[in-house]
Amino acid sequence: MKRPTITRIIAAPKDIEDVQESFEKLAAWVERFQLECSLNVEHKVEDLTTESTHCQLTTRRLTGDMPGLLAKLRHIPDAGIDGQSGHACMENTRVELLNDIDIWNGDADVARIFWLGGMAGTGKSAIARSVCYRLRQNKSLGASFFCSRGTRDDVKRIIPTLAESLARQNVAYRLALLDILRDEPDIGHYTVQLQVEQLLEKPLRDAFVEGQPMLTLVVDALDECLDTKAVKSLLSALVPRSRGIPIKFFLTSRPEPHIQSHFKSTQRDLHNTLRLHDIEQNIVEADIRFYCTRRLEEIRASYEDREPPYEFPPEWPSREDIKMVTKRAGKLFIYAFTALNYIEEKRPVERLLGMMELDFAPGQPLTEPLDEMYSLVLT
């Protein structure tokens, strides 16, 4: 019911007071709400700061001593793929072989060790470099070690170097490895059997879970290591354990008795084996012919760009030139590589003709053309 005018006039001051009181209460509530929000934000910031500080302290505790611990492994800095000056396989050569290795690398159900054997000069190291580059492109290269007589020939440095390299790129493995190194800081001096167990098997099992994509470790030219007993010990420790280690191993070497006999005597399902000198002659010959053709064309182009330009016959290299170098190389990429470096050095036309004069007979020992080539190069 509407109040009379006189009543409203009399009650107006009280209404104003009520409105003012309501506004004052509302203002107090807003101020209190703002204060509580501010306090909550401050508490959250404090919590986050405390949590961040805790994480930083934990990280420092876990990795603060990392440089010192990893240094105790006595790794060889230039042993990996980035320390190698040699060439990988020329593009469009070794295509089928490299594809087979890619398939092996991507299959979690196959044997975890791939041994590539081959006589000197068959291109094992070039293949190993190509494998490293392809693995890196697929983000599956764990680490690599390229053995070399006189500089990187101590088998007891292989596993520590691989471990150090892998630790720097994989956090989970790094933390697991550092825990072990805190308890066993001198493990880099232990036997290769203990190195395999403590630097690979144990931390890798802790770091990687089932179903996770596997990384691959590459070791090239294992035969270059001087201590043959230590090499046998390494293989004896590594091959039987490979099923239980969540990582793959790509190994190359010459078919030396202490290496080849080990792969013959162990279970075949524990490793894949491929011997380069057993690959069909026509497959290898096609790759070497392609390599020779490309290199000779590059040699001609580089000399024609010089001042004054070097003069070549119109048909150089001829089909006969390429056929001759290819036939002499047989299955030895090192022959083609050495011959073409020799030709490229100076007077390529004359040097190629000089090679044509070398004695060559089908069926001669595989390395005899190489012996003749080195005799020519050194004269």
TrEMBL record:
The keyword Repeat applies. Coiled coil: none annotated. Pfam families: NPHP3_N (PF24883). The lineage of its organism: Eukaryota, Fungi, Dikarya, Basidiomycota, Agaricomycotina. Residues 112-255 form the NACHT domain. InterPro entries: NACHT_NTPase, NPHP3-like_N, P-loop_NTPase. This is NACHT domain-containing protein. Keywords: Repeat.
